[in-house]
Design brief:
The chain is an alpha/beta fold. The protein is 27% helix and 21% strand. The chain contains nine helices and 18 strands.
Length: 445
């Protein structure tokens, strides 16, 4: 990776900058150029900031998460797709790493570390990032914080003034007219669109989401390996919470045990360790994620752990039954596992979402519980917790080899409780490959 320290700034080119002539470096000033020193002379780029403690090593710490060649290949594929769609450039938009940072991370490895904040003039990029990929010219990352050693881009501008910087780079690269596609158009605010339209009024901005979201659906072997390691951290966290589960412990104490163990097992972070006891187990989502309510004998306890390892997410759920186990809860657990098995049996390339839903509904119907089947059967997972495809009724989609999915059928019976099992799997030609190992029907006696 070229070291940006000590390089002299590029002079303003008379024509767009060519990608192959653009070594990676940080630029200090807004608008795609180096900050002027006193008297107007350009300054040398500053030494990039580092947040790596001494001795820390690993993907995403002292080097990109994936091999640099993978990111370069993705950028070149995006350039080719832009040309095929009549676009002069594509702007990928990303939010914080735990919100919606996947498009930018997929293309260059950058994950925005700060939470997204309200746009204040001059600081409208807090917790967000932009990657501008022109058909001809350097790929430019604009971010509020960036670490060059982990990012694959030809230029990196660190600034909170994203809109000013984007306009500057469009002018510098000769992109003041033409069509620019936006990948992540649902993330780009109206205020950002207005600012860009005012700065370069002759540019036509068009949605280009599928140019990035489509290739993100299929995980490369290196990504599958990272997701397997992420699932390991989730399994360790779940095992720790299940080990201490007993009547009298609070949801918060159980969540703390699982969170600590997942972090110790290598997780980058644990977004939450959801613990829902008793009739709260009916709900997939609830705030707060864990309360001071204490576990009681004879009730279900739902555990859902979400986080990431090396930037790749994990999302695994188990429901434990605390003894003595009531027969109706045992039956609910068996019905849920039957739904899971029915869906897994059909997890092959070409299977439609409707096929998966029919399989789960059929299994639930054999227990007289079809009306109790929750709508969400699962979703893709990768650099974001919830990715395409969404396994919901009415979704017109089908599975492809190389997808990584979270399969999570849930049955909810008012007055009794809910039961769900969530597995992370890789879709392969001969069936799903399980990444998770936690027992599906844990018991606490």
């Amino acid at each position: 990776m070229p070291d940006p320290r000590g390089q002299t700034p590029d002079p303003e080119p008379p024509a767009p900058v060519a990608a192959e002539s653009a070594p990676r470096r940080v630029v200090a000033g807004p608008g795609g150029g180096d900050a002027p020193a006193a008297g107007g002379a350009p300054q040398a780029p500053p030494e990039p900031p580092t947040y790596r403690p001494p001795g820390a090593q690993g993907p995403g710490i002292d080097r990109p998460v994936l091999p640099e060649a993978i990111y370069r290949r993705r950028q070149e594929a995006l350039r080719a797709a832009a040309a095929a769609h009549g676009l002069d450039a594509v702007l990928a938009v990303g939010r914080a790493f735990y919100e919606r940072g996947g498009h930018v991370a997929f293309l260059c490895g950058h994950l925005a570390p700060a939470p997204t904040a309200a746009a204040v003039p001059g600081y409208e990029g807090w917790g967000q990032s932009l990657l501008l990929v022109p058909r001809q010219g350097p790929a430019v990352l604009i971010a509020d914080v960036a670490r060059p050693e982990t990012v694959v881009a030809d230029r990196i501008e660190v600034t909170p003034a994203h809109w000013t910087a984007l306009a500057g780079w469009l002018r510098r690269l000769g992109l003041t007219t033409g069509r620019v596609g936006v990948a992540g158009s649902d993330l780009w605010s109206w205020a950002a669109f207005r600012a860009a339209s005012q700065a370069v009024p002759a540019v036509e901005w068009v949605p280009a989401d599928e140019l990035v979201s489509r290739p993100r659906r299929i995980k490369e072997p290196e990504e599958q390996a990272l997701l397997a390691r992420a699932a390991e951290a989730a399994d360790v966290g779940l095992a720790a919470a299940l080990e201490v589960l007993r009547p009298g412990l609070s949801e918060q104490q159980l969540g703390a045990a699982g969170t600590a163990a997942a972090l110790a097992a290598g997780a980058d972070f644990v977004r939450y360790f959801r613990v829902h006891t008793g009739t709260w187990s009916l709900l997939s989502f609830r705030w707060p994620q864990a309360t001071d309510r204490r576990v009681r004998a004879g009730e279900p306890v739902a555990f859902d752990v979400i986080g990431a390892r090396c930037g790749y997410q994990f999302d695994v759920l188990r429901t434990a039954l605390v003894g003595p186990v009531r027969p109706e809860l045992e039956r609910l657990a068996g019905a849920t596992e039957a739904c899971l098995q029915a869906v897994l049996a059909r997890c092959r390339p070409g299977t439609t979402v409707a096929d998966l839903w029919a399989a789960a509904a059929g299994a639930a119907a054999r227990f007289g519980l079809e009306a109790n089947l929750a709508p969400l059967l699962g979703h893709g997972i990768g650099l974001e917790t919830v990715e395409e495809p969404l396994l919901l009724p009415g979704v017109d989609d089908r599975l492809e080899a190389g997808m990584v999915l979270c399969i999570e059928p849930a049955l909810r019976v008012p007055g009794l409780g809910g039961y769900s099992i969530e597995e992370m799997v890789v879709v392969e030609e001969d069936g799903p490959r399980l990444l998770t190992r936690t027992p599906r029907r844990p018991l606490a006696v």
